[in-house]
Automatic annotation (TrEMBL):
Reported function: Catalyzes the reduction of 1-pyrroline-5-carboxylate (PCA) to L-proline.
A Pfam family assignment: P5CR_dimer
Main location (coarse class): cytoplasm
Organism: Tsukamurella soli
Subcellular location: Cytoplasm
Catalysed reaction equations from the record: L-proline + NAD(+) = (S)-1-pyrroline-5-carboxylate + NADH + 2 H(+); L-proline + NADP(+) = (S)-1-pyrroline-5-carboxylate + NADPH + 2 H(+)
UniProt-listed InterPro entries: 6-PGluconate_DH-like_C_sf, NAD(P)-bd_dom_sf, P5C_Rdtase_cat_N, P5CR-like_CS, P5CR_dimer, Pyrroline-COOH_reductase
Protein name per UniProt: Pyrroline-5-carboxylate reductase
Pyrroline-5-carboxylate reductase dimerisation domain sequence ranges: 157-261
Biological or metabolic pathway of the protein: Amino-acid biosynthesis; L-proline biosynthesis; L-proline from L-glutamate 5-semialdehyde: step 1/1
HAMAP family to which the protein is assigned, alphabetical: P5C_reductase (MF_01925)
Family classification: Belongs to the pyrroline-5-carboxylate reductase family.
Record EC number: 1.5.1.2
Amino acid sequence: MNITLIGGGRIAEALLGGLIAAGREAGTLTVVEPSSERAAALEKRYGVRATTVAADGLAGADIAVVAVKPDVVDAVLPAIAAAGTGLVVTVAAGVPISRYEAVLPAGTAVVRVMPNTAMLVGRSMSGVSGGSAATPENVALVGELLGTVGKVLVVPESKLDAVTALSGSGPAYLFLVAEAMIDAGVDLGLTRDQAATLATETIAGAGALMVETSSSPTELRAGVTSPGGTTAAAVRELEKNGLRPAFYAATRACAERSAELGGR
């Protein structure tokens, strides 16, 4: 099965690296990247074939992965349509499946993916939705491919704006929390390096607890929060200053913007 990635940016490279690490032969992978320097670098680093010409890269492809910026999607679709690739996977944020199906030959299976930047370290949480011609087998295959760089959740496309709000943009929320914790630590007298180490390792450890134990976030928080203790005092201030309403508002704004970018 030959896979062509259209676009050679960070997300495409992360998927490329994950596929190769999972045992896929480099000879079955092609990257289409307009920058000849970037194309050459990817070819040398991973042993894949790289080209600057879409038609060349799509020749013989069983799967085309659209990994370009949303405003470039319309420019690459004609080449995919001309190649007649049977399965098209898109990781372009906000672009609905209908945009692809309007240009691609009838019957082309389109599967839309909303990954996040943790794909770069093999820990992405991706939402996956199939188009009108995508079979359960198509969706399962895409899930298997994305499973090389993280976890996958299959949802209807109507839920992808919500997926974007939670997992697609979610890493930025936690980076912002980390920034705030670091600044607070500095204000309490720690050096910035000390505060950064404490904050980032604490967030990483808390994330591991949520993933690797059977306890819910509520149960885990309760386990740290002794009645009348230090954590209870801190949580009271976070709640009083509107932590939950802020996240409700932020995720809703994100979902609405995602829909807007998709022309909905």
